[in-house]
Here is the input.
Amino acid sequence: LLTTKDSVGSQRTEHAPPIPESYDNGRPKSQAFPRENRLLTGADFRRVLSSGRRHRAETLTLISKASARPRLGIAVPKKQVKRAVRRNRIKRIIRDSFRQRAQTLPNCDLVVLCRAGAIDDAALKRDIEVLLDRLTERQHASRQQAPQGSQQQET
Here is the structure.
């Protein structure tokens, strides 16, 4: 219920409009970041960090390891980014890029580490896009090479 005052000063009570079905907890479902798309435990992070493949950019490092579906973990250390507001902004930018490209990403667990110098939003967006492009290109290249090598020669 919403309580509002009209121009005369009397109060009116109205029902709030229903949340559309395409929304989840007040956010559009397309912008949700469900648990199954996140790395949640320390063991998941350690597994990727210990044996994953590293891709570096100016402000970020992306570590990937094959898995059943694309999942994302983000680490923004206080030592690198002092202010909580800035750390949260960095995480939002990374999550947004992941969400927009989740359908095209290969099935792998990703950990994004923030490095010193992640100050500019534009540079951060550019770096995450470059890293995700590299990851996608590498996956497509490996898919194209695998069938060629496995074909049998006809005589």
Remarks:
- DSSP finds three helices and eight strands in the chain.
- The helical segments are 42-51, 84-101, 121-150.
